[in-house]
Sequence to fold (221 residues):
Amino acid sequence: MRFDILTLFPEMFEPLKQSIIGRAIQKELLQVNLINIRDFSKDKHKKVDDTPYGGGAGMIMMPDIVYDAYNSIENKENAKVIYLSPQGKVLNQKKVVELSKENHIILLCGHYEGIDQRVLDEIVDEEISIGDYVLTGGELPAMVLIDSVSRYVKGVLKEDSTKEESFTKNLLEYPQYTRPEVFKSKKVPEVLLSGHHENIRKWREKTSIEITKKKRPDLLK
Ligand code: 4GM
Fold:
């Protein structure tokens, strides 16, 4: 799967080189390309934003610069362009699975007070938010999207745990335990030591439902 990221801060994506996503990039299961929007600035001061027409606080990213940065991306015929913004549809696991079926995603990261509406209307297919709060830029949301979607790309996870993942069934995970058998006088639930697979499955299912009722009753509705 290929991701192209349009951003003013390409260095912010360093964390993707780590851990599971980093390994998937090395294995060429994922391709992550960074496009620095500032490289498409038209003046010697590398300016990319300007004051809003009509007045008001903050700076707006200029449409021609963002458009030229987008146009520099090659072989984008089948790409889905996603703009990360607090006004987007809130990302959930169902949407993550849906996006994992794409071959090519272009992520547009805004900054300042946003981007000129005309270039958004021209290039964006979908506006996505990672939750109802405001951040300084779209970079962290873009990384959240890449991480969550990449888990569903074949070969990225060593053991594909996404199939049984409780969140896919609108449930929270059951608790997990490892050695030692007793910690601070607390014993691991007996059923997990029994080796009785059907009883273990039932216990986990029951516990998942109880935990969801207690912590996230909204998921059961
Ligand atoms: C306003 C418009 C995304 C602000 C466009 C981006 C939060 C989210 C920004 C933008 C963001 C979110 C930058 N803050 N909830 N800030 O997904 O890109």
